[in-house]
Design a protein that fits this description.
The protein is of the alpha/beta class and 205 residues long. It has seven helices and seven strands. It has a five-stranded mixed sheet. The protein is elongated, with a radius of gyration of 20 Å.
Length: 205
């Protein structure tokens, strides 16, 4: 693709690095921003820099937050339920179903040897510690991970780590397509998967 200037080319190259954005869309966005007043572009740039530099993660739930202090505990929820998800977008997706009233725990990813992600890179130890410190308050852990090979591997690993606790370990029903991702699942299907969750089986031959 030919560009009228190096500045446009550089902008297109950076914008097209975003997921789902191709070169043509990136070019349209770059030209759109160029037509806006300087304040609009500066506001966008400032918001992105602040997002990268100032975003924190809750020290307990690991959800994206404005501070490391947990605000989840100040919200009245069912403290006996803890839903384990891959990342913050999954929290939003499940909340939008209005079918879950417990707390969340964000792993920050899933086990993927191909990508060099092992249990040590995820928030699994803090999950185990969270269950331990609850001293029986947490009675059910829902493994709401995407139904992929990596998601199933992660669920199995977590279930084994939590096996010694007197809690119910469940997983969302398979209304979510195999190989799909939670954040892209429609709210009705995801809601039914939460309501009709299944006991997680960790037995092996």
């Amino acid at each position: 693709m030919q560009y009228p200037s190096k500045l446009i080319e550089d902008a297109v190259n950076e914008i097209s690095k975003l997921p789902g954005i191709g070169k043509k869309t990136a070019l349209r966005l770059a030209l759109h921003l160029l037509k806006q007043d300087e304040g609009t572009t500066e506001s966008l740039s400032s918001a992105l820099v602040n997002l990268r530099q100032q975003t924190k993660y809750c020290r307990i739930c690991h959800i994206i937050s404005d501070s490391e202090d947990c605000t989840c505990e100040s919200i009245r929820k069912d403290s006996s339920l803890l839903c384990v998800v891959e990342d913050t977008p999954d929290v939003i997706a499940i909340q939008n179903t209005s079918q879950f009233y417990g707390y969340f725990h964000v792993l920050g990813g899933i086990i993927s040897p191909i990508e060099g992600i092992g249990p040590g890179e995820l928030n699994i130890d803090s999950l185990v510690e969270r269950v331990r410190k609850s001293e029986g308050v947490i009675k059910e852990v829902i493994l709401a991970l995407s139904p992929t090979m990596e998601g199933d591997t992660t669920s199995f690993y977590i279930a084994k780590k939590l096996k010694s606790f007197d809690i119910k370990i469940t997983t969302i029903a398979r209304g979510v397509p195999i190989g799909g991702e939670l954040e892209y699942t429609d709210e009705v299907t995801l809601g039914r998967s939460i309501v009709q969750r299944l006991v997680f089986d960790i037995t092996t031959d």
